[in-house]
Each structure stands twice: as structure tokens, then as C-alpha cells.
Amino acid sequence: MSQDSGRPANCANPIDAIVLADYWLAALPAAEEETLEEHLFTCDECGARLREAIALAEGLRNLAREGSLQMVVSDAFLRRAAEEGLRVRQYSPPEGGSVQCTVTAEDNILIGRLAADLRGAERVDLSICDERGVEQSRMRNIPVNPSEGSVIVQESITFAKAAPTSTMIMRLLNVEEAGDEKLLGEYIFNHTRSLPGPGAW
Amino acid sequence: MEIELNDAELVRLIGCGDDREAEAELFRRMAPRIRLYGLRHLRDEHASDDLTQQVLITTLEALRTGRLREPEKLASFVLGTCRMTVLNLRRGTERKAHLLEQYGAELPVAAQPAITLDRDLLQRCVQGLKERERTVVVMSFYDEETGSDVAGFLGISEANVRVIRHRAIRQLRECMGVAR
User: Fold this and answer.
1) Which tens digit of pLDDT belongs to each residue from A154-179?
2) Which CATH number fits domain A87-191: 3.30.428.10, 2.60.40.4070, 3.40.630.10, 1.20.1250.20?
3) How many Cα atoms sit within 13 Å of A131 on the Cβ side?
4) ipTM of the shown complex
5) CB nearest B115 (choices: A1, A38, A51)
């Protein structure tokens, strides 16, 4: 026995993937959510697209849990990670100062909490430099809230676990409209390798 | 011979008597939709499976006893039952044990295979987002923070958060090759 079920073989009004993602996030107004659910109960094509949205959401959650993304995070992120039983290793070097750091096999998330006065900053970049201060990479226009007074940066735990003993310098920069850069804070991380591996990259 | 049935015909067949094939078709048709509803509202695969079973039992019970007066509204009935059941689950007032005892053995409900994404590709795609976009999608999908919470953290408007989130999702879908 097959079916047509009132279900169109090709949906005449397919729901946009973005709307489905918002539905998954409970970010739709109630009336819109009700209408969408009525559609989903008659349209398996849109149901399949919702499953794709869920798969993307799950993939993002898994990546976040792995701690392998280099990104700015929030305190809520750290709370969530702790609730999930993830082990968070966090370093908070003073502005202009340094900190001795490492990661162990048990660590899941690696965080640097960078204190800085962000008031009046137009665009904030995070410059990641080697021990000589030569920029190796840059996170441009990072999300900051000027009232927070710090930036919480997650370094990839996968990278950190593989890294040899070395020094990394992070610099928060205010990039002005004309392109001029003003140093907001510099932070030195003296990383000591505690996992077996090669002595250099 | 293959028989094409719409929802109303399916309801009538089940109401007429002991049509196991029609009941199996009802399960096959509705179970994936109920499960998606459950995943969205209960955020748990096992709870969604339980919901699917419970709603199918309730629906079957209603159809067998002819309680669905407008057969063409089967989908609306099932959706309404989902909403009521989730409310009841949240209130902790379950008929589940009784219903499962009565009908449970009859339910041939198979879970839909989950979609799995290429993890390494997804990581590259996420790292390819702009910093703000990456933070917004992770705050939204991992922390499950509301638009208002994300806006508060970033010091921007909720509307702006929505725009950033939508742009990021579109870019991720394109990068993953699922954009349609």
C-alpha cells in the first residue's frame, strides 16, 4: 500500500531552510510556528528539510563540545560546557602580563580570558603572534560587548594538545575607521607541553 | 496491486474494522512527523520515540472507535494530539502505561535514519564564518540562548542577531552543499 496522504510529491510552498532553523531554535512567533507545524504534518518534503536543519544544529553542537573551534565565547557557553561535564581549562593573564599554561588529555575546552577596557572601541581584532611578536593569524572584528571589560577566547583544544612548548602572544587591537590600530591589551601565554609529542612543529 | 490512499480514505478504512494494512500505513505516514515534532519540543530522542508511540496509540484508538468526525482532518488531529500529549507529559499526567499495555505490541514504528554530516567539512565551514557569525551560531545552537540573550552579550539588537544568524546558516548550508 502506498500513499499520497494529501502530501504533495513536490511541495508547492516549501519552507525556507532558515525558517526551519528558526523553528528548531524556537525563534519563531507563536502564530508562525503553529502554521509551520500544520504544514509539516502534511508535507514530508519539508520534514526532510527540517531533518537537515536538525543535523546541522547537532553538528554545530558536537563541534562546540569538542572544543576545536577557535572563537570568542560567552560565560553562558562556559556554564553550558560545565553542565555537560566538559572540563574547561581557563587562563586569565593580566593585561600586559603573562601566564604559564598547559593542557592535559582530560581537558575539553581551553579558554583565555583577556581583560581590557573596550569602551569606545570601534572594531576589535585579535592578533595572534609568535614569541617574537610576529603576527601569525588574526581574528577580525571579533564580537565584544564594551561593557563586559574582557574578551573570552576559545583556542582549539586539538591545536593546543598538539602544540610543542612555546610562547604565544595575543593582542587585542582597536581598529579605527581610517585603518589605524591601537593596542587595547597584550597577553603572553607560555605554553608547556604536557602530552607526548614532537618538540617542535 | 498498489492502492493510493489519501488521509480521509485511510481513516475510513481503519474505522471500518480490523484493517491492519491501513493501520500500518497510518504508522508509516505519521510516525516521522510526530517524531520531528517531539524532537523540536522535547529535545530528546527517547522522549520523541515515546511521544510517537503514545500519539499513534491515541490516534489509532480514536480511529478504531470512529471518534474522528472529519476524516480529511487526520493531520490536524494528530498534530493536536501531539500538542496535548506534550502538555500532559510536561504536567506529568500520563496515560502511557495503560495505553501501551492495551496497544503497544501492535506498533511497528521504525525510527528514521538520522542524517550525518561530514564533521571535518563542517568544521572548515564554521571556521570560514566571520567571527561574529561563528559566535552567534554557537551561542544559538549550542548554548541554546535566545536572540535576546545573544543580543545582550554582543551589545546589538535582536533584529541584528537574527540577520547575522540567518546569514551564517545560509553560508554554512552553501558550504556544506545542502543549500536549496
Assistant:
1) 999 999 999 999 999 999 999 998 88
2) 2.60.40.4070
3) 6
4) 0.87
5) A51
